[in-house]
Amino acid sequence: MPPMDDRAGPSPLPQDRSRHAASRVFDALRDEIIALTLPPGAPLVRLELQERFRVSSTPVRDALLRLQEEGLVEIFPQHATMVSLIDIDGARQAQFLRRSIEIEIAGVLAETPDPALAARLRAITEHQEWVAGRGDLNQFSVLDLEFHKVMYEAASVGSLWLLVRRQSGQIDRLRRLHLPVEGKAQQVIDDHFAIIRAIEAGKPGEAQAIVRDHLSKSLAFSSAMRSRYPSYFS
């Protein structure tokens, strides 16, 4: 018998491959739901998803169950699966959670200003400004999340970002719906620059006040969004 090569790891088990496929399907569908490419109320046909992602029924089922846990999909057994409608109460709770955490983060970061962190946040915001000028709101949203994720990591609470992301599907969709409104993208950019300046200047109270205001605006416009897109809301 030839000697075993210790460098070669074990062959992936079928369930490992299925788990990887489910994560791939979940990530893709979640991104499309948050970006409203798959709008609230859109049907999700499992056979079509299997063909699209070239997977069996199990990864699709597992991905949809995870999306259901996040409140982004509704599954009606033996009937249909659809993208859930935006739940304002769920959005309000998610906003409360995220705002509470990020106000604290802003204070912590401003207590010990880090020029390298300020430079990184400024680079992200300048990139946001550039993509906004090109009208690329999807990339703008990606960079917006990156800005806030960097703050969590800088405050050494990166694992809380994952918790917040799992709870934020409703408020993220509301923010994405609000983003095309004239002046909204520039407002986000201006807020980000203001947060950076407050952190850089070592002003915890000011940084916290800006973050509080920054993370409150989309929900304040929820009535207008509901009037404009009534079919999107529960």
List the defining traits of the structure above:
2 strands, mainly alpha, 234 residues, 12 helices, 69% helix, two-stranded antiparallel sheet
Walkthrough of the structure:
This protein is mainly alpha-helical. It contains twelve helices and two strands; from the N terminus they run H-H-H-E-E-H-H-H-H-H-H-H-H-H. A two-stranded antiparallel ribbon has the order 1-2. A hairpin with a 3-residue loop joins strand 1 (73-76) and strand 2.
In terms of quaternary structure, what is this?
A: single chain
* Tertiary shape: globular
Q: In angstroms, what separates the terminal alpha carbons?
A: 65 Å
Please bin the fraction of helical residues: 55-70%
Overall pLDDT level: 89
Output the structural class: mainly alpha
Number of helices: 12
The biggest sheet, with number of strands, parallel, antiparallel or mixed sense and barrel status, is: 2 strands, antiparallel
Rg: 20 Å
List the uncertain runs.
1-16
Number of strands: 2
The largest sheet has its strands arranged as: 1-2
Residue fraction in strands: under 5%
Order of helices and strands: HHHEEHHHHHHHHH
Topology:
Blueprint: H1 14-34, H2 46-53, H3 57-69, E1 73-76, E2 80-83, H4 88-111, H5 115-133, H6 137-154, H7 158-167, H8 169-178, H9 184-200, H10 204-214, H11 217-220, H12 222-228
Antiparallel strand pairs: 1-2
